[in-house]
């Protein structure tokens, strides 16, 4: 009997020890965040949107004829900024901007609701605090595609600095009329630049905005090499002429850089149209046999457009490429004609 009680007691002790050892196993508990799928009620770490504060500069511009583009690139280079070119989904043609012909630009500029569609994606402006906004002057205002951009991109809280290019038109109300499209932006006064404005002029203009302290400065930028052509317009026809490499052509460029001129020209000798310039130019006369399309300086203050041949001591200023006698006569006519001379800049 005593033996049975002893064995039963021993059995109970062994059972208790075994249970205790089982409760003190060696497995580690699961750690929070280690290979554990979140439940449907819990958001994973990092899923909340990140708040960004803009600290950079972007140059946004529209430039159909290429006059605004070099200025935008000067700003980009000087400030080490990003750049975005606004391009129309339906590209503009040269005929689209032949003013006062009921062209596309005529119709859009007088239509308050016109908003030409922009090609491609708009830039993400969240990382910028300054937006330079460049455009040409069309009928005294910014092209309506600029309106499209301002209504589509979020410039709230951004400093917007408008700049425009034109041959003669001032900035006028073109900048102020855009304020209502982005009322939450901080608008600076608009600035108009002449066609052909230099990089040094842009650099001087930028000093007022004190943007160099934001690590946006980029020194020793290779300057963009610009070229320009002579634009000749008569009776609604437009011709483009490449300048000669001489001091006479350079002087003409410098004069036209201040604005276009219109010259009343008369027919002479059944081979040229000739008119008087408002100023004298240096002469580089050589014996020349002209061809249709030659633009010639005669006696230092007369400009001629040849539609046929002639030989004399002249200074060639420029030459219209691939223009035939018939094409020139169709534009210049048989009698007197008013001809507009201007510049068009590009890279």
Unreliable runs: 17-54, 213-225
Instruction: Give the DSSP E fraction (strand runs of 2 or more residues).
Output: 25-35%
Strand/helix succession: HEHEHEHEEEHEEHEEEEEEHE
Rg computed from alpha carbons, rounded to a whole number of angstroms = 36 Å
Layout of SSEs?
Blueprint lengths: L1 H22 L32 E6 L6 H12 L2 E4 L18 H6 L18 E9 L7 H9 L6 E8 L19 E2 L3 E4 L4 H8 L20 E8 L2 E7 L3 H10 L4 E8 L3 E5 L9 E4 L4 E5 L3 E5 L4 E10 L4 H8 L4 E10 L1
Parallel strand pairs: 1-2, 1-3, 3-4, 4-5, 4-6
Antiparallel strand pairs: 7-8, 7-15, 8-14, 9-10, 9-15, 10-13, 11-14, 12-13, 12-14
Describe this structure in words.
The chain is elongated, with a radius of gyration of 36 Å. The chain has an eight-stranded antiparallel beta barrel with strand order 7-8-14-12-13-10-9-15. Strands 1, 2, 3, 4, 5 and 6 form a six-stranded parallel sheet that branches. It has seven helices and 15 strands. 22% of the residues lie in helices and 27% in strands. The longest helix is centred in the first third of the chain and has 22 residues, at 2-23. The chain has 347 residues and is α/β, with parallel strands linked by helices. It has two domains: 56-214, Flavodoxin domain (Rossmann fold, 3-Layer(aba) Sandwich); 227-346, Beta Barrel (Cyclophilin).
Structural features:
347 residues; alpha/beta; Rossmann fold; Cyclophilin; 27% strand
Summarize the structure.
The protein is α/β, with parallel strands linked by helices and 347 residues long. The chain contains seven helices and 15 strands. The strands form two sheets. An eight-stranded antiparallel barrel has the order 7-8-14-12-13-10-9-15. Strands 1, 2, 3, 4, 5 and 6 form a six-stranded parallel beta sheet that branches.
